[in-house]
Amino acid sequence: MSRKILYLNANPKTENESFGLQVGRSFLDAYKIKNVDHEIIELNLFDTEVPFLNASVFEAFGEIQNGASFEDLTEAQQIQLKKLNDLQEQFMDVDAYVIVNPMWNFSIPPVLKAYVDVILQVGKTFQYTEDGPKGLLKNKKALHIQASGGIYSNGDAKEFEFGHRYLKTVMAFIGIFDFELLPVEGIAMGQSEVSEILSLAQTKAKEIAGSF
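The structure assignment produced for this chain is given below.
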């Protein structure tokens, strides 16, 4: 059965400049070989206009909740809500996700946070119940490839890692509990080890692709 994979690139660099994206490409190449009939959608968030949830958006939400139709909104609000909806529908329509980003200041790039704000939509990816919030996305999985200059997946610096922990919380909140981390880390701690770090991560990416 054909599947759809959404590959989220949250790095402003090119693949030649980014260790994380090189590992991501190794995953995609290996995945395509084994799953020739599957569709892979590549979304570069730095080349995508991801709407911020600003005053105009919340005003539009309020008007709709009070009975206004989409056509009653201003043209600018209609454009914003359409972009929000398109990104939400694309996210919900796939079977699995690969998220690739660098660690910036212990967390994720702002554009990825803005994207999370878009996809966390009540009634679409989660809902409130008498027992609390409940994720609506089922039978999906995700891989997180995160590159960092230091080592944060274990050791003394682990408590400073907020990127993967945040995304793992987000995914669980919307119902995605199968969420694996592939760190590409320590790349700034010694130039002699960089090629080995990259090679090991690419090998791991290919292994994951075999069963993803």
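Interim note for the steering committee: The mean pLDDT is 94. Residues 47 and 60 are 25 Å apart (CA to CA).
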